[in-house]
Structures are given as C-alpha cells and as structure tokens.
Amino acid sequence: MIKTAPITIGGGKLTLQEVVLVARHGYEIELDASVKAKVTKSRQYVEKLLAEKKVVYGLTTGFGKFSDTYISSEDAKMLQVNLIRSHACGIGDPFPAEVARAIMLLRINALIQGYSGIRYSVVETMVEMLNKGVVPLIPEKGSLGASGDLAPLSHLALVMMGEGEALFRGEKLDGKTAMDKAGIVPVSLEAKEGLALINGTQVMTAVGALACWDALQLAKWADCAAALTTETLQGVRQAFDPETHDIRPHAGQQQVASNIRKLTQDSRLMTNQGELRVQDAYSLRCVPQVHGASADALQYIHDKLLIEMNSVTDNPLIFTEQEKVISGGNFHGQPIALAMDFLSIAVAELANISERRIERLVNPQLSGGLPPFLTKYGGTNSGFMIAQYAAASLVSENKSLAHPASVDSIPSSANQEDHVSMGTIGARKAAKIVENAYNVVAIELLCGSQAADYRGADGLGKGTAWVYAECRKQVPFLDEDRVMYTDFRKAVHMMKDEAVLKDMTETLGL
Q1: Rounded to an integer, what distance in angstroms lies between the CA atom of residue 164 and that of residue 93?
Q2: Catalytic site residue 57?
C-alpha cells in the first residue's frame, strides 16, 4: 500500500469516507492539536472529584443495579479492571478486521471530545494500536445496544490491558503478545476509564457506517442495472421524463429518474409510448419511485450516522466548565437502532425489485422475444434459470432479516436497564442484507448484459454501454452452461472496486 498522509481527527466532523479509509484501507490517524487540552482538563476534574471523595456513578460506585454501592478510592482501580473482565461476554465469531478498526476509530473520536474523564495517554494507546495494526478480536454477539455496546467494547478494552485476543499482521495472538510485538505498552486503568472505554454506541455505529457506505454505492449500481434491464426489455422511455417527477418532488425519485435518463441517453433499444406497448410493468416503470424512496432513506441514515459518529455517548459525562457530572442516557442506541432497521428495509427493497426484473429477463412470456433463460440452447442448457433461483433465495432471506430489531426489548440489570435498543443486532442484520443485495444486483447486471448481446449491445445508451462494457471485462457472454457462482463473485468485486466506482462517477455523473 502506498503510504498516505494520516487523517486528522478531533478538529472537525469525521465523515463516512474517512471511516472507510481507516477501516478498510489502513489509513493512519493523528489527533488534532486541540484535543490534548480538552481531554486533560476533563481528567483533572475527575481526579478532583476523587480527591474530594464525591459519590459519582462509575467513579466511586458500582454499575447498573450496583450504582448505589459506594466504592472506595483504594478499590477504584480494581473496579475498572473487574468491569472489563466481567463485561467481556461476547459470543460468536469475531467481527471482520475492518469493523474492529472502525470501532476503535469511532471510540477514539468520542473520547477526544473531552467529556469522558479519561487520561490522554489511554487515548494515545488506542491510536497507537490502530496505527500499528493491532486488531482486537471482538465477538459479534452479546450487545443489547442500550448501556452502549458493553460486551463487544469490553473485548477491545481487554486487549488494551494486555488481555483478550487480537490479530497482528494477520496472526491471531493473545492480547499481551500482540501488544508486545507491536511495541505498545498495555494500559493500567484508573478510575472511570474502564467505563469510558465500553459505554457507547460505537459497535453498532461502526457496523452501520460501513454498511451504509456500501449501500450508497449499491444504489448507483441498482440504477445502472435497472436502466440496462429496461433497455433490453425495450422499455417505454416516457416513464422517466422529468414532468412526472417534478410534480411529485421527492429528491430521491427525481435523482433516480435523472440517472435513468442519463444512462439510456441515445438508446436505440428504448421505445416510445404506444410503439410496442402503452406502459411497462411496475418493476420497470416505477424504478424512480421505488429506488428513489430507498435513496431518500439512505440519505436519512447517512445523516443520522454522521451525528452519532461525532457524538459523545458514554456515561457519566463530565462537564468541566459547569463543574457538573451528569448521569444520563446518551449510550442508548435507539437513534441508530431505528436507522439500521430503516437501512435493512431500504436495501431489501432494492434487491426485491431487482429480482423481479431478473424474472422478466429470463421468462420468455415476459421478455419480449429474448430466448428462454437467456440461452440459445434451451433444454441441453439451463442458462440463467438457477441464477434467478439464487436471487429469489437471497431476496426471501432478506425479508426475514428485515424484521425490525428495534421493536424488541428485554430488561436487564435487575430491571434497572429496562428498555434496550437491540441496535447492534439491527446493524448486523442490515450488513447481511446489503451483502445479499449486492449479489442480487450483480445477477441482474449479468442477465442484462446477456440480454444486451441478444438485442444488440451497439444499440445501448451512452451510460448503459459503459455498464455493459464493465460487466464484459469481468464476465464473458454465456454461450453454453458453465459454473456461474464465480461470475457472480467477479461482478460483485467489480461493483465494490474503487477504481470502477471512481470511473462511474466521472463517466456517468452518478
């Protein structure tokens, strides 16, 4: 990887793209010069409270139901260590390394705002871990998403203490060995610091941020696939004329209609109203309305994630200027839980309508003269028959996964924490739906490209010709049956390739 300048955090708003660069592409970070004074001032106020033996939740008390139990200053350090060890109750496979890196980045971004009472040196340790490639192994399951992501974040804190498990340069190691090999000194937690490390929404937000970024790119490909399919089915172009969309001015609907017009510009395959038919099926004619609704949802989700990524979500919060410590509920994941359920539904619908377009391409009763299942040798060859099965399977799975997690709540901590968000479950489900949807749209792109070869690819519009050419760089025409799952993988890889996405933006203006 080419060495890049580090991303500075703490001086402004962290963006979704910056999260992706750090999480997936190994970008290092540095802290803005203003950060140290804010963090240090907050810590000094915590130490003042400790010296005065004030009764403050999380500093000199237990946690949850034990919030009324006083802890002496002598036991404060043990309290923090016990907190991390007892709360590291994660279950299941670990999150991918990119998610763990995103979690660390977002936790750092919350702590450096100066409301958490943590020592600056502890933040520096996490920065060093991120920059040197120590990746905590954080189990996916075990968070209720209400007192923050307590269980998964405890697995991050364990490695900081030289415990738990981590990856370093691709090797799975115990936390102490990983830190030693990276040349990082583990931390010895002081009062408040264990709680500051684990009380927050960074796990659900990290998973959600990466899934939302992928969904935003997928939405562009869904428009490309829809345009290609509409052309090869000789769709009616007037459905995308601006007049219709100007009198129902949802931003997403207008944008998608504009995208379809750009993509099909100068097409000789599109037809006029009444030429072959008066109107198309909904999966073609209503693309602006359906894709557009998902586009609007994705914009809402993006905006909510930006707020959360740049917020302080632990407890209690230290307000040094007002000399206050407030025990509130910023750790509650409901804002992200609802957004993640919305993400699930919005992306599931992109896949849902895509599968219906696939069906029209492969079904000879609906395709307007294309060969059955897009193969010349039907009978001895199945063509894209089972590709549609696979898409239908993923769409059906998405319907189950899209059931909202946020409507569930189970009381915890002896009913002290009696309403929880399940936001992390929602985020994990949304990420699965996004991955499934990529594969469905990939299948549509390949079906559309196959149909274009039969119709005459030289008749495609300016934009769809680019889409077709990119698909054909990856996957050749299906003349006779071959193993197809590798074709799907190649198409998905193309859709996620940053160079291709950059070219899409520059060439098509999407």
Answers
A1: 14
A2: yes
Of 54, 1, 59, 57, the residue nearest 28 (C-alpha): 1
User: Can you state the angle between helices 120-132 and 150-160, rounded to 10 degrees?
Assistant: 90
Instruction: Determine the Cα–Cα distance for residues 167 and 97; give it in Å rounded to an integer.
Output: 8
pLDDT of residue 68: 67
Q: In the predicted model, what is the mean pLDDT of residues 442-465?
A: 98
Task: Supply φ then ψ for residue 249, to 5 degrees.
Answer: -80, 50
Q: Report the C-alpha gap between 374 and 363 in whole angstroms.
A: 9
The answer, yes or no, to whether residue 64 has pLDDT greater than 70, is no
What percent of the chain has a predicted confidence (pLDDT) above 90? 85
Query: In angstroms, rounded to a whole number, what is the distance separating the alpha carbons of residues 397 and 255?
Result: 29
At CA 246, angle to CA 244 and CA 249, rounded to 5? 115
CB 372 within 8 A of CB 379: no
Can you tell me the distance from the alpha carbon of 226 to that of 235, in angstroms, rounded to the nearest whole number? Answer: 11
Angle subtended at Cα 315 by Cα 311 and Cα 317, rounded to the nearest 5 degrees? 70
Output the pLDDT for position 447: 98
Q: pLDDT tens across 365-392, in order? A: 999 999 999 999 999 999 999 999 999 9
Using the Cα atoms of residue 35, residue 40, residue 43 and residue 48 in order, give the sign of their dihedral.
negative
* Helix/strand/coil for 438: helix
Per-residue pLDDT at 127 exceeds 60: yes
- For residue 118, give Cα distances in angstroms to 156, 195, 423: 16, 9, 26
| Domain boundaries 7-200, CATH class | mainly alpha
The active-site residue out of 57, 115, 282, 468 is 57
Task: Check residue 1 and give its pLDDT.
Answer: 45
Question: For 373, left (φ over 0), alpha (ψ -120 to 50), or beta?
Answer: left
CB atoms within 10 A of CB 299: 16
Structure tokens at 465: 């010709």
What homologous superfamily is domain 208-312+339-508 in, according to CATH?
Fumarase/aspartase (Central domain) (1.20.200.10)
- Position 232 scores a pLDDT of 98
- Tell me the two tokens of residue 415: 């009913």
Where are the domain boundaries for CATH 1.10.275.10 in the chain?
7-200
The predicted-structure confidence for 483-496, as pLDDT tens digits, reads as follows: 999 999 999 999 99
Distance of CA 62 to CAs 70, 192, 472, Å?
A: 7, 11, 62
CATH 1.20.200.10 maps onto the chain at: 208-312+339-508
